[in-house]
Please model this.
Amino acid sequence: MDMNPSPAQPRSALLRDLYEMHGKVPLSFELFPPHSADGRNAMLETVERLSPMASRGFSVTMGAGGTTRSGTFDAATDAATQSGRPVMAHLTALGLSRDEALETADRFWEGGIRRILALRGDRPRGVSGPLPPGFAHASDLVAALRQQHDFDIAVAAYPEKHPEADTMDEDIVHLREKLDAGANSAFCQFVLDPAAYGRFLEDCARHGIDAPIVPGVMPLEGWPRLKRFAQSNCTKVPDWLDRLFARTEETPELEPYLAATATVEQARRLIAYGAPGLHIYTMNRWPLPLALAEIMGQG
Model:
């Protein structure tokens, strides 16, 4: 007996109804701070190509321990200037003192960045010993940001449970605490099994959570690397994706076509499970995210 059944896909959210009656799929795109002049040019080209499709704007990541604070600020303001779209800057608190975290938020505000993804984050690699006293939990950071400026604050959600949480219910309680502290929405770590997102929405609803929970979509390029990354983040890897990309070992020419087709299938299933929009990881590359946006009705 299946003890963890997939949730039913609601007919009212299926694609014909969505595309023909309700219009375009809201999309946002994630960038990372570049490390060189060539990287900055590549990021800005990605922003330029995707701006017409980015109805919900862009986000810019921050390294563990706030290690890319300046790079995050520069990339966020560059993206906002280039696109004219809203940009959400990540703020990773673990490894920063309270003053450092809030000074970073002040700089974002002064630079015109009004959206923040508030994260506790992971312990910085290679750093031993005690960390600076700061925000121990993302909910504490959210509450402080809410007092500081009128930010639009988002937080992270984990459809397959945060690795440090003992149970899914415990993890959803933590999500509820972050929302109650003043966050307006949540963005999910990417999933490769859209049914996990559907189950997560149902579990959140049972806990009284009605804030928008936007799933992350990872373009399925470079499968061996992506699979290792997923496994390192405790993301379930469906057998069908392994079987699909096994075909590229003998016929590598198929890889870009299979990657595009599988990414579109993932996006469609997430929408069918009730996603209010999609947050697409670009890795600062635009071709597959742009193709996905065209197919999802943004063109």
User: Anything to note?
Assistant: The first strand starts at residue 27 and ends at 31. The radius of gyration is 19 Å. The first helix runs from residue 15 to 21.
